[in-house]
TrEMBL record, chain A:
It catalyses: [ThiS sulfur-carrier protein]-C-terminal-Gly-aminoethanethioate + 2-iminoacetate + 1-deoxy-D-xylulose 5-phosphate = [ThiS sulfur-carrier protein]-C-terminal Gly-Gly + 2-[(2R,5Z)-2-carboxy-4-methylthiazol-5(2H)-ylidene]ethyl phosphate + 2 H2O + H(+). GO terms for cellular component: cytoplasm. It comes from Gottschalkia purinilytica (Clostridium purinilyticum). This is Thiazole synthase. Residues 7-249 form the Thiazole synthase ThiG domain. Its EC number is 2.8.1.10. GO terms for molecular function: thiazole synthase activity. Pathway: Cofactor biosynthesis; thiamine diphosphate biosynthesis. The active site is at residue 97. Its main location: cytoplasm. It is found in: Cytoplasm. The keyword Transferase applies. CDD domains: ThiG (cd04728). Homotetramer. Forms heterodimers with either ThiH or ThiS.
TrEMBL record, chain B:
One of its GO terms (molecular function) is 4 iron, 4 sulfur cluster binding. Keywords: 4Fe-4S, Iron, Iron-sulfur, Lyase, Metal-binding, S-adenosyl-L-methionine. The gene is thiH. Its EC number is 4.1.99.19. Its cofactor is [4Fe-4S] cluster. It comes from the Bacteria. Residues 67-305 form the Radical SAM core domain. Signal peptide: none annotated. This is 2-iminoacetate synthase ThiH. Pfam families: BATS, Radical_SAM.
Length: 256, 367
């Protein structure tokens, strides 16, 4: 069965997106992509050093991987737009993850500024993937602004706390006609699996892999968890019940 | 409201009596907590907490990896000038010291920038003495306009400015401010700053806040350890960082833990601060403020810097020179103080990698 994820004009087989920060060495990245089967990699433009041959993270990202530069460090729409344009001009393609954060304590995104940046960048031809809190009204505005996907957080960035915003993400999955990619807070493969079982289109994570004692093995675990969750979603989960439903009901004889 | 209000709340606090009443149980309970308050932090700085240094360090290591990953940002200082109007007992630039005074011309700044950037450094910290008439905001602004051609991030460590002046430099490309209070103890502050504009304790104390109001990206604060009892300085530094983080959430706050180093002049520290004390300061701070950056300069030895790297450190200087134009002109120059770790960029990167960490040369872009 074909089950590709389509974002913009790109078909993706893998539904796991990976971040590239926090690693002890960028040289781990190729193996992590290989083991997780990940096809989309997000990189903070502020970390990319195009002038350096030795210290350029892009050297470690295989050419067939979709690059998703992000606007990490932007505190408002203007800064995000400038970073996005710089990324495009630097040859990083036309995908952009809008990340606008002016709260360093919880690293929660600014919905209003994100909508403004999305509208402008989408009109310029960018494939815009905005990182937001899971708010239905913000997500609807992003649809109108031309976003290509919506990336709600499961819990604060780097917290490894799992899908704490489950009920709100579920609403977005039901209501928003764009891929919903759960981003941030996914701490263990079962969290990623849970997001996929709910019907999310994909998951993006970084800290859980990068700070693991064995990042390559953990990447493989996440790749499999996302696949498992997606298959479970497609298969359809059984209904939940608070009472037992015996396979052979006690009153079944009445119908005989 | 200024940080001075919080400082005033604690400035005459009897820390010794407080520490006499702390038990092992108090420290054990703090180790179970996810979010620490000011008093928890004060307790982690206590002599009693020294018995728990290893479990505190383990937690600090884990929090640092969670928030910053296994990465260390590298930067280098560039001294633009050493003219000064102050008489600070602990500083080589003290007006009373008979040293060769110099301010780099813009041509010299460009040559120095070209040389430093050729080594791969992308984050630069520019410094001057406190001589606003000579090393004026306009002069610094002209330097920034040159430096942004060579570096991705420009930090300033200069005399305190007003909001308009900070705004002007930020618009030109400055993204980070480093300013040390030297000592949070108001009485000692007055005693070690004999003459000059730096005598104004409040104007200096509120400088990081003025930069935050001017929408700077990051501020780095600290005390020059050795002037007052280190546990108090560590406590006030942590409180100051916490105040700025909470009030200006758009700003990345980090702290430094500099110890007084040998310099021209005969000042000796009032209090000795040991390696163990610095470790306790850093790990306690990490538990209190998990997202706060921690900067360790080349004032510390190579061995010490390698060993404290996993305990909470996020930024390190490398290939430092504390004399004016000292990167390109190494002769007949007076250092502000003597550096201890003399590793060049290449060696520093190699050693960081050997320790299982990734050296980061670029983590910011002037956009």
């Amino acid at each position: 069965m074909n089950d590709e994820l389509i974002i913009g004009d790109t078909e993706l087989k893998s539904r796991l997106f990976i971040g590239t920060g926090k690693y002890s060495s960028d040289s781990l990245i190729p193996k992590i992509l290989e083991k997780s089967k990940c096809e989309v990699v997000t990189v903070a433009l502020r970390r990319i050093d195009l002038s350096s041959k030795e210290n350029n993270i892009l050297n470690y990202i295989p050419k067939d991987t979709k690059l998703l530069p992000n606007t990490s460090g932007a505190r408002n729409a203007d800064e995000a737009i400038r970073i996005a344009r710089l990324a495009k001009a630097s040859g990083c393609g036309n995908w952009i993850k809008i990340e606008i954060i002016s709260d360093n304590k919880y690293l929660l995104p600014d919905g209003y500024e994100t909508i403004k940046a999305t509208e402008i960048l989408a009109s310029e031809g960018f494939i815009v993937l905005p990182y937001v809190s899971p708010d239905l009204m913000v997500a609807r505005s992003l649809v109108n602004a031309g976003a290509s996907a919506v990336m709600p957080l499961g819990s604060p960035i780097g917290s490894n706390r799992g899908i704490k915003t489950r009920e709100l993400i579920k609403i977005l999955i039901e209501e928003i006609p764009l891929p919903i990619i759960v981003d941030a807070g996914i701490g263990k493969p079962s969290d990623a699996c849970e997001a996929m079982e709910m019907g999310a289109s994909a998951c993006l994570l970084n800290t859980a892999i990068a700070t693991s004692k064995n990042p390559i093995l953990m990447a493989e675990a996440f790749g499999k968890a996302v696949e498992a969750g997606r298959k479970a979603y497609l298969a359809g989960l059984g209904n939940k019940s608070y009472t037992a439903n015996a396979s052979s009901p006690l009153t079944g004889f009445l119908n005989k | 409201m200024s940080f001075y209000d919080i400082y005033s709340r604690y400035k005459d606090f009897d820390i010794d009596s407080f520490y006499n009443n702390i038990s092992d149980k108090d420290i054990e309970l703090i180790l179970q907590k996810d979010i620490l308050n000011e008093i928890d932090f004060l307790m982690l700085l206590s002599p009693k907490a020294e018995n728990f240094l290893e479990p505190i360090a383990l937690k600090a290591n884990s929090l640092t990896i969670q928030h910053f990953g296994k990465t260390i940002l590298l930067y280098t200082p560039m001294y633009l000038a050493n003219y000064c109007t102050n008489q600070c007992l602990y500083c080589g630039f003290n007006t009373k010291n008979d040293i060769k005074r110099k301010q780099m011309s813009l041509e010299e700044v460009e040559a120095e920038a070209k040389y430093i950037s050729s080594k791969g450094i992308k984050h630069i910290l520019i410094l001057t003495g406190d001589a606003k008439d000579i090393s004026s905001v306009e002069y610094i602004n002209s330097c920034v306009n040159i430096l942004k051609k060579y570096f991705n991030s420009i930090s300033i460590e200069i005399f305190p400015l007003n909001e308009d002046e900070y705004s002007k430099l930020i618009k030109s490309g400055v993204d980070s401010l480093t300013i040390y209070q030297e000592t949070y103890n108001e009485y000692i502050y007055d005693k070690v700053h004999l003459k000059g504009p730096k005598k104004d304790y409040r104007y200096r104390l509120d400088a990081p806040e003025r930069a935050c109001k001017s929408y700077i990206n990051s501020v780095n604060i600290g005390a020059l350890l050795g002037l007052d009892y280190w546990r108090k300085e560590a406590f006030f530094t942590g409180l100051h960082a916490n105040y700025l983080q909470n009030k200006y959430p758009h700003v990345e706050v980090s702290i430094s833990t500099p110890r007084i180093r040998p310099h021209v002049g005969d000042f000796s520290p009032y209090h000795i601060v040991s390696d163990k004390n610095i470790v306790q300061f850093i790990v306690a701070l990490r538990l209190f403020l998990p997202r706060c950056g921690v900067t360790i300069s080349t004032r510390e030895s190579e061995n010490f810097r390698n060993n404290i790297l996993p305990l909470g450190v996020t930024k390190m200087s490398t290939d430092s020179n504390t004399s004016v134009g000292g990167h390109t002109n190494k002769q007949n120059q007076t250092n502000q103080f003597n550096i201890c770790d003399t590793r060049n960029v290449e060696k520093m990167m190699e050693d960081i990698k050997t320790l299982g960490y990734q050296p980061i040369l670029k983590n910011w872009d002037i956009i």
